[in-house]
User: What shape does this take?
Amino acid sequence: MSQGSSSARKGIQQYVATRKGGPFQLIDAPYPVPGPNEICIRNRAVGLNALDWKNLHFGMMVENWPEIFGIDTAGVVEVVGENVTDIKAGDAVMSLAGHGGRAGAFQDVTTVPANYACRKPAAWTFEQAASVPICYLTAVATIIKGLGVPLPHLREPTKGEGEAIPNLDDLISPIATRPPQHLPKPAQINSVLVVGGSSGVGACAIQLLRNALPNLVIISTNSPAHKYKVTSGLGANTWVDRNLKPSEIAKAVQDASPQGKGVDAIIDAVSGAQGGANKAIFDSFRPDGPKLYSYVMTSMQKVEVPNGVKAAMIYGRMAFQTDGGGFEAMTRLADFVDKGDFKLPVEIEVVGKGLSAIGGGLEKLRRGVSGTKLVVSL
Ligand SMILES: NC(=O)c1ccc[n+]([C@@H]2O[C@H](COP(=O)([O-])OP(=O)(O)OC[C@H]3O[C@@H](n4cnc5c(N)ncnc54)[C@H](OP(=O)(O)O)[C@@H]3O)[C@@H](O)[C@H]2O)c1
Assistant: This one.
């Protein structure tokens, strides 16, 4: 440990899901010890995500109970492990967390790898900052991994990258089982449909796409209430009412696409094309186009795609393993925000203060939100 010391610190409280379905329980725990390249963050605000209630009610990614959830946090660094040089004790940061023991956000102090975190932009409160990391990282991965589009705010590709064209079908393989892939050769993409442009992930994806490809035609599906937000606010060219029938959505997207031929790619932030009639959304594709379908993993079920569609199932942590600067996806975020190129994706609602407010917040989230991230202050 190079800065701060865990040994002299008092214990912490953890908000633990005791078993599938709950209840939560507050328990006392010793102050964590960071390993090399890790930091301990005193959480000041935590973001609530659908994954948290899905884990609670379905045990979606839970191996052992009791478990500590929470994948988004913002707070102040208290202790840093060996080799951490860019972050020091006392820094205000925002960070991806990860359910499981000391990495979960729903506790007083969270311990994560230093590259999961970045300086909190001065313009954002802790509550705002805590609403962003997982959605931003997931959007980064949908674009780099799923569409093969590099993001200019991350490092420029090094010489030699981009020359190998991967089989896009490979992109659905679990990335953890294979080494990082070379950055795909930038795909020829002139138009993209973002399904769920007003969701946290979708709102990040629209901004990142607009920044990367200024001439790209971006069409969003969302509720009418968010039409100005996704267009004037985030940079989509136009929007389609997500309450239309899927076949009507596909028709409207085609009409809005270049020459009315359909879009080259779809980023599906909400698995909107999952099952039954929703498959009609694939009719939005240009018949002779690359038909890239990059969708966020929202359950353990893959989205079945028609023949000819190149699908990539995406989860947030993939961002760190993408070439083209993915490892630094979080650390580059603060400067990106400061430059005015990335806005708070969705409005926040603070649903309570203290760890005990998390359970009620998750139930509220489960009932559904629209263009809002729920956050708890600590
Ligand atoms: N695997 C991962 O690593 C990972 C990471 C992040 C998120 N996720 C998953 O991705 C999904 C999105 O997460 P999020 O935090 O971005 O969600 P969110 O902001 O809570 O999503 C709510 C929004 O989704 C929109 N929406 C829902 N169904 C839609 C549909 N059929 N068509 C268009 N829009 C629709 C609604 O739009 P309107 O209000 O405009 O109606 C609403 O604003 C969640 O299922 C989450 O579990 C997975």
Notes: The domain at 12-131+346-377 is CATH 3.90.180.10 (Quinone Oxidoreductase; Chain A, domain 1). Confidence is low (pLDDT under 50) at residues 157-184. The first strand starts at residue 12 and ends at 17. DSSP finds eight helices and 15 strands in the chain.
